[in-house]
Every structure is written in C-alpha cells, then in structure tokens.
Amino acid sequence: MAKKFADDEIDEVLNSIEKFDSDGIRFIHLKDNVKKNFVKTKIAEFKLKDILVFLDENGLVQRIPFDDKPGFHDMTLYRISEKGRKLVAKFIRESREDWSKNSYLANILCQNCGYSYEIRIAYSEAVKTWAKSQRCPNCAIKGSLSTKL
C-alpha cells in the first residue's frame, strides 16, 4: 500500500532540495529546514524520511549516501533529479498570472461560433454546470459553452 502525503508536504521538501540545485542538501540541513518556523509546512522527522524514500523511489530526487551504511545518515546528500525539476517547474507561476487555490484552469469552446478561451473556474463548480449559466463573450449566446478537447 502506498503512503499518502499532503501535496504541500511533498512540495515543501522538493522546493527545499531544489533551492540547492546540483550541490544538493544534506539530510541534517534538510531536516532542520523543514522543522523551522519560517517554513510553510512543518514536517516531523519520521514523515520527512518517508517522503524522501517516496521521492527517491519515484526518481524525483537522487540520494547519495555518505557511506555504505543503509538508512538515514545525517550527511546523506539529496539532489533534485531532472524529473523532479520538471515537476517543480509545472507548479511555478509568475506573479502576473491570475491564479487562485480555489480554482482550476479550463479550456472553453463556444458550440455556436467556435470561439475558444481559457478561464479559471471555482473548484466548487463543475465546468458543465458553470457553462450552462454563462454567455459566450463573442456571440453572447447563453448555454453554448463546453470544454475544449
């Protein structure tokens, strides 16, 4: 059975490792980093170890042991892999972007005139429900919007 972690916990650990790029970060420093008050999400040491195992098994980080002994040594080095870098890049957003944790991006197409655009829709609404009550910004026909495939 796979362990489940909160997205913000995985994000916090990946971002902490990613800050050090190709130099990597030692386990002892990473452990201190995710337990301090300035971090968004505080993570206990036992959970950090589980997250690191999960990230290593899925190829998101590279684990470089300090010596040949198995387990978590304080001087074990962690580097973000190319796969991990790509994942972090997907969630980076610029300050000019209209982004809200309460919404998701949807590609909308008008069935009447063919006009398409992107819009953020609140998580509390489904696209189909939202589209029924909206008018197309191009032709002003109500209820002609659907998701663009």
What report would you give on this structure?
By secondary structure, this protein is an alpha+beta fold. It contains five helices and six strands, in the order αβααββαββαβ. The chain has helices at residues 7-18, 27-33, 45-57, 82-91, 127-132; strands at 25-26, 61-64, 77-80, 103-110, 116-122, 145-147. The strands form two sheets. The chain has a three-stranded antiparallel β-sheet. It has a three-stranded antiparallel β-sheet with strand order 5-4-6. The longest helix has 13 residues, at 45-57.
Q: Report strand %.
A: 15-25%
Question: Number of helical segments?
Answer: 5
Quaternary state of this entry equals: single chain
Query: Helical proportion?
Result: 25-40%
Biggest sheet layout: 3 strands, antiparallel
From the N-terminal CA to the C-terminal CA, the straight-line distance is 34 Å
Mean pLDDT: 76
The counted number of beta strands is 6
Q: What string, H for helix and E for strand, traces the elements in order?
A: HEHHEEHEEHE
* Structure classification: alpha+beta
Low-confidence stretches: none
> What overall geometry do the principal axes of the alpha carbons give?
elongated
What strand order characterises the main sheet?
A: 1-3-2
Rg over CA atoms: 21 Å
